[in-house]
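Researcher: I've got a protein sequence and the SMILES for zinc ion. Could you write out the 3D structure of the bound complex as structure tokens? I'd like something to compare against our soaking experiments later this week.
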Amino acid sequence: MQTNFNLTLTKQSDNKNILINLLSQLIDFRIKIIVTINLLIALFVMNYTTTLYAESAFAKFKLGELDFYCIQDAPGEMNNAIFAGTDSEILKKHTQNGKSPSSISTFVIKHNKKSILIDTGNGNQLLENLAAAGIKTDEITDILLTHTHPDHVSGLFNRTKPNFPNAAIWITANELTFWKTSNNALVEKTIKAYGELKIIIPDEKTSIVLPEIIAIDTIGHTPGHVTFLVSSKGQKLFIAGDLLHSSSLQFPHPEISSRYDNDPKQAANIRKKLLTRTVNEKWIFVSAHIPFPGFIHLEKDGEGFKIIPIKLLP
Ligand SMILES: [Zn+2]
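Model: Sure. Here is the predicted complex with zinc ion in place.
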């Protein structure tokens, strides 16, 4: 199953990044080679692969009538320590040097005067990469939070100042209750800066902000974790939040939960269920921690799943 999409993949090239690139060439030569090879492959066969994790960037494509962006907050790696208790042979097979490639990614949907940001990252390079994508912080009308772990909400503020002064914040009722118990000071600060929080109803019949967006209940990672399905002109894209943390390990082994999962068993059940729906309903899949930009399809592979790259058009 391969589908063609128009996609713009852009890398930042300011002075800071040039310096970072020079330094990283010294310490990360192998990754640079992989990235270069993949860019060359992308130029000639337009076939996206998921090894571009060493770069900070944004990516953009058209989902039906909507403009959809992946805006990276930071590249990164997931350490196997978060999968403590997992069979060492499985870890060895699906990870390298005790780690797997990852990212902190956020997403923007633009349509009909709405600019919707999904999660806000850790506040690393989100603002720079939004600017590089031509998206102004004051044009963000709504922020949908999948959940309230720091790597998803810290980008709401630059110290005391809200980064998105005109945005309304959306959250599920269960997650708001959880957030109040885990960091009530930040809840109060957020309400003071952004106004009363709007409540996401994840019943798949109620649209969120746009008729094209619905929320899907995916509790387990946190008590109010929610994911989003975006549909336009027959194309469907699933924004999976923190349904998984290592694509190389948890696609083949969706039964493995990480120590970040509040309820590991519930998280594993909902992971299997939603990955199966992704395959059956032919959704494009993106999530916060799969390597950037991570627009992929999935296919069933034994008890697990495997990535089917999405073929790109120039
Ligand atoms: Zn996360």
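Model: Residues 149, 151-152, 242, 288-289 surround zinc ion (CB under 6 Å). Residues 1-6, 10-54 have pLDDT under 50 and may be disordered.
Researcher: Great, I'll pass this along to the crystallography team.
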